[in-house]
Amino acid sequence: MSTPAPSNPHLTPAVPGEPVAAPSFEYRLHKFWEKYANAVYTLCAIVLIAIIGKGGYDFYVVKHENEIGADYAAASTSEKLKAFASSHAGHQLAGVARLRLGDEAYVSGNFTQAAVDYQAAADVLKTGPFAGRARLGAGMAKLQGSQATEGESQLRQLASDSSQMKTVRAEATYQLASRAAATGRNDEALKYLDQVMAIEQSGTWAQRAFMLRATLPAPTVALSLPASAAKLPAKP
């Protein structure tokens, strides 16, 4: 048997002239429920739908990411890597795939394609160690190919970027030194080698910088004589 709604016997004074007592809590709660029950039910339904929707979306995202990871793991050839990078453009693993393609093109001597792949990888990865590797690869590929000036500029930007890993910066600076030495700019090469040592006091690139320095002549020093010494003494 249902419980009847609580009445409020205090609304009418028991004795004429006496003050009316305030409504009881049960009575006020009952009136509130009568007025707002539908709104409360609707709000609860909205919250429940939102919770279910969030859980479903999270499940979809995890499932989707797992599927992409499986596709990447299955990309065991260059053609499969290209297909993966194309079908998942913009995804971080697509950036890694383009980085691998850049490495393959660079090793095979196709520097133009390597520069394209490395730059595409850098555009997707944006930050982190892989992004630094991609930017370094793009600069090196251009340096080795037909865009040497642009490649040097890109390596200089990378070498001066303090947000990059020291190893990446040191390698970029060493490659600039090596390029300068190969083109007869010995003084410039020595400056780059000093920068390598400042970035990385020990390690592979510091060691290579030390060995390259040993093959270079001493820096050119311009000698200037005082104006008085430039004149020959007068004959007696």
Shape: elongated
> How many strand elements?
0
Mean pLDDT: 80
Low-confidence stretches: 228-236
> What distance lies between the first and last C-alpha atoms, to the nearest angstrom?
142 Å
The amount of beta strand, in percent, is under 5%
- What's the main sheet like? none
Share of residues in helices: 55-70%
Radius of gyration: 38 Å
User: Which structural class is indicated by helix and strand composition?
Assistant: mainly alpha
The secondary-structure element order is HHHHHHHHH
Number of helices: 9
Record the SSE blueprint.
Blueprint: H1 25-74, H2 78-87, H3 92-107, H4 111-125, H5 129-144, H6 148-159, H7 166-182, H8 186-199, H9 204-214
Helix pairs in contact: 2-3, 3-4, 3-5, 4-5, 5-6, 5-7, 6-7, 7-8, 7-9, 8-9
Descriptive notes:
- The protein starts with 24 loop residues before the first helix and ends in a 22-residue tail after the last helix.
- The C terminus is likely disordered.
- Among the domains are: 41 residues; 66 residues.
- The protein is 68% helix and 0% strand.
- The protein contains 9 helices and no strands.
- It has 236 residues and is an all-alpha fold.
